[in-house]
Write a structure and sequence with these properties.
17 strands, single chain, 400 residues, binds zinc ion
């Protein structure tokens, strides 16, 4: 067989592109990205916007610096998805011919101070929508990462960046840029090195929210082996200490629009019937909580165990477990999912042995929509063999 034929045959078997590191990247970035894994091309890439006010300019060399950083973040997700059983899957990015990432440079109508942390995202997103309407086909999916330069004032500067939005909001998320936001500081025990982990870990974590991920903690076993989950406190460890994606995060990303491989024509986030629960039970064996759910319209069932409060940003310690489906779906699409949650896998913060505890069942649908169904119970009075009454399935809600 001729070499060219062999390459063609092999590439048909492996529909992935090798993420070649562009020649103009820094030597340090080339070193860090040397063990890159191939990433499957995406049908609907993530949109990355570099957003300015009418009176500020991009931070110097942002295209190279942020391209290197986005390659690194894409590789983190690709390697973690591969480890979780979804080989070579990551969020897609729009690319330029020179290997840089395509950043949509959008200039707002207001002074940059008007796009501040807290509420500045409203006007920003409005103006990105206007940009998308004026530039047909520029915005390729429903997920947008917005990056703004740090403020420079009495409080913030390039050695203490901030002032701009930095959070996930639905399918949008916000991160920031500053002069030392550069992979050459990765892992270094210097001010710039610690800053990089904070803002790079922060970008990867907020991006996770923008890609449908809720907070979650890992099991005791996984954290001992792999460190900190990105969607737990991993925003403070990525690049410095071992950081990983939980199976819960990986399954939700498998149903996320910007992770869909080229050719996947799923109508992501289009209205569809909600999961119907035909039968469900939660039992306490003395060593484990065992949940069985028979439902339809669902690809994955995951569960999060946490102590109250359950409010936003109080859920970093919710320990995630994943169900194994049992048997095949019946003609109406119903299938049984079983999750075993050993108490030994909960950290002391959840396994207090007293007071209220909550279990949130997450239903991930094939088109990326998610539902959450919460049951609370008193963990202090549980006895082995107890059946814990579940809340009514009608109380489940759409969202994280
Ligand atoms: Zn978060």
């Amino acid at each position: 067989m001729k070499t060219t034929t062999l390459i063609a045959a092999v590439s048909m078997l492996l529909p992935v592109v090798q993420a070649a590191v562009p020649a103009h990247f820094s030597d340090r970035a080339k070193e860090i990205l040397a063990d890159s894994v191939p990433v499957q091309p995406a049908e609907y890439p993530l949109n990355i916007v570099y957003f300015l006010g009418n009176d500020n300019e991009p931070v110097a060399d942002y295209e190279r610096r942020l391209s290197e950083i986005m390659h690194f973040v894409q590789q983190f997700y690709a390697k973690e998805m591969t480890r979780n059983g979804f080989p070579n899957r990551s969020f897609g990015m729009q690319m330029l011919e020179n290997g840089n990432v395509k950043f949509h440079l959008v200039r707002g109508k207001r002074s940059h101070r008007e796009y501040a942390y807290g509420t500045g995202h409203n006007a920003c997103l409005e103006e990105i929508r206007e940009y998308a309407a004026a530039h047909a086909n520029s915005i390729c999916s429903e997920h947008i990462l917005v990056i703004m330069p740090t403020f420079h004032d009495a409080e913030y500067n390039d050695l203490q960046p901030g002032g701009v939005p930095f959070y996930g909001l639905g399918r949008n998320c916000f991160a920031l840029d500053y002069a030392h936001f550069d992979l050459r500081h990765l892992g270094q025990n210097t001010h710039e090195g610690r800053l990089l982990t904070k803002w790079l870990g922060g970008l990867a974590h907020e991006l996770g929210h923008g890609l449908n991920l809720p907070h979650n903690e890992g099991t005791v076993t996984d954290m001992a082996a792999m460190g900190t989950p990105l969607m737990g406190a991993g925003n403070y460890t990525l690049g410095m200490k071992p950081t990983y994606l939980t199976p819960n995060s990986a399954r939700l990303l498998d149903c996320c629009q910007v992770f869909a491989p080229a050719g996947d024509k799923t109508e992501f986030y289009a209205p569809c019937p909600r999961p119907e629960v035909q039968q469900a039970a939660l039992q306490y064996t003395g060593k484990e909580l065992v949940l069985t759910v028979r439902c339809n319209n669902t690809t994955y069932v995951n569960a999060l165990v946490q102590a109250p409060p359950y409010a936003v940003n109080q859920d970093y310690e919710a320990v995630a477990f994943c169900a194994t489906p049992e048997g095949e779906a019946d003609a109406a699409g119903f299938r049984t999912h079983r999750i075993a949650m050993p108490l030994s896998e909960l950290t002391a913060r959840q396994n207090t042995g007293k007071g209220e505890q909550g279990i949130d069942v997450l239903f991930a649908q094939p088109n990326g929509l998610r539902y959450r169904w919460r049951t609370t119970y008193d963990s202090a009075t549980l006895k082995p063999g107890d059946e814990i009454p579940l809340s009514k399935p009608e109380s489940m809600w759409q969202g994280y």
